[in-house]
Amino acid sequence: MTATPTSLRERKKAKTRAALREHAMRLFEEQGYASTTVDQIAEAAEVSPSTFFRYFPTKEDVILVDDYDPVIIAAVRAQPPEMSPIEAIRRGMKEVFDSFTPEIWEAERRRQSLLAQVPELRARAMHQLSEALDMITAVLAERTGLPADDLRIRAMGGAITGVVMAVLPPGRMTGEASIEARDFERLQEGLDLLQRGLPLA
Amino acid sequence: MTATPTSLRERKKAKTRAALREHAMRLFEEQGYASTTVDQIAEAAEVSPSTFFRYFPTKEDVILVDDYDPVIIAAVRAQPPEMSPIEAIRRGMKEVFDSFTPEIWEAERRRQSLLAQVPELRARAMHQLSEALDMITAVLAERTGLPADDLRIRAMGGAITGVVMAVLPPGRMTGEASIEARDFERLQEGLDLLQRGLPLA
DNA sequence: CTAGTTTTTGATAGTTACTCTCATTTCATG
DNA sequence: CATGAAATGAGAGTAACTATCAAAAACTAG
């Protein structure tokens, strides 16, 4: 997260990339996602439209890039092996979230708000989550020693991902979308319920 | 499912719609999704390109239209109220699947195969599933008498949807995508595991 | 610092999904 | 059959992408 890129080239690329993301976010908020063109974003970031597509394969990707999922997975992997899988996942997520600066929270809040509003983005965000499911399933398999395509492993991974999906935004709970500490507490409770066994009366 | 449309107009529209879907499916299989243009589909179905977009808002929708989700929800609702929620969902799904003709299974198999192959379609299919989650959650709320935004309800809906996501294709389990009786059995087992409580050692 | 190599960029042209508008055709109804 | 409503086709326009190629910027060696 703090690995400073070395060469001038790398620094410039990182800068351009960040500029594109920030201006895109700003313009989307100001004018709406659909009515903001890639050309406008490129112009605001002072690069050519071609360059935009060199940094992001589609207009959607400029806000869909998710920097944290792999970090969370790594944090989960780093938990002591004797810990129960759900507990490991919970702690891993908590560690990462606790490491967020207020700026990151704010950026993430704005991002999630957009995801909640634009259906095409929501769709792709869901897809990302389903890929997270695969990673979580892999971790579960490692920890239990069972094969990754074991039904019990898949079901567990699915259930955990489903709880995350149901409890966190984009746009799921009451009111406007926002990721905050509160949401995280709810997630903790949700996983807790799953662990104890759901009330399936 | 068998409500015959009355007027000539309705019949023609249904025919055009079906023709567009079938030719699209065929062309996608023959040439690939990306390299098939909407114009080609329209031509094959003998309508103008404009007409295509009158029937389907986007190229994606021509294969994404899901006819069965609402049917399943209705079937779940129809289960006796004293039945446990998971059991109701399981029976509802079984009833609907059992009503499928071999032709429907075959069409569904081809559809799922495409969904598994084309990432953009997978993304939207996942989004559909997440909307199914909302419906399932609503049903759970009705049956338990709890409010729909109760955390326990949301967590349960999420877990159920997650299991469905993890166990069914598109493209999740081993081998190529296909929906068959086997997949359904796996789904039954998966839900069963969830109901009994997952092995969360 | 210079010269040569590689990487990144910008400009241009082209394809295709999708939108809007309007005239024409096709069905429904009295 | 006549009149109104709904569906279609045709045309022009926008914007997201793709491919190509030449110019510019950055790394590397001498």
Summed over residues and divided by their number, the pLDDT of chain A gives a mean of 88
What's the CATH architecture of the largest domain in chain A? Orthogonal Bundle
Main sheet: strands, sense, barrel of chain A: none
Identify the most extensive interface between protein chains.
Answer: A-B, 45 and 45 residues
Q: Structural class given helices, strands, pairing of chain A? A: mainly alpha
In terms of per-residue confidence, which ranges of chain A show pLDDT below 50 for 5 or more consecutive residues? 172-177
Shape of chain A: elongated
Helix share bin of chain A:
55-70%
Q: Would you tell me which CATH topology of the largest domain in chain A applies?
A: Tetracycline Repressor, domain 2
How many strands appear in the DSSP assignment of chain A? 0
Proportion of beta-strand residues of chain A:
under 5%
By DSSP (H or I, 4+ residues per run), the number of helices of chain A equals: 10
How far is the first residue's CA from the last residue's CA of chain A? 45 Å
CATH class of the largest domain in chain A: Mainly Alpha
Q: Write out the CATH superfamily name of the largest domain in chain A.
A: Tetracycline Repressor, domain 2
Oligomeric composition of the shown chains = homodimer
How many individual domains of chain A? 2
Q: Could you give the order of the helices and strands of chain A?
A: HHHHHHHHHH
Give me the Rg of chain A, rounded.
19 Å
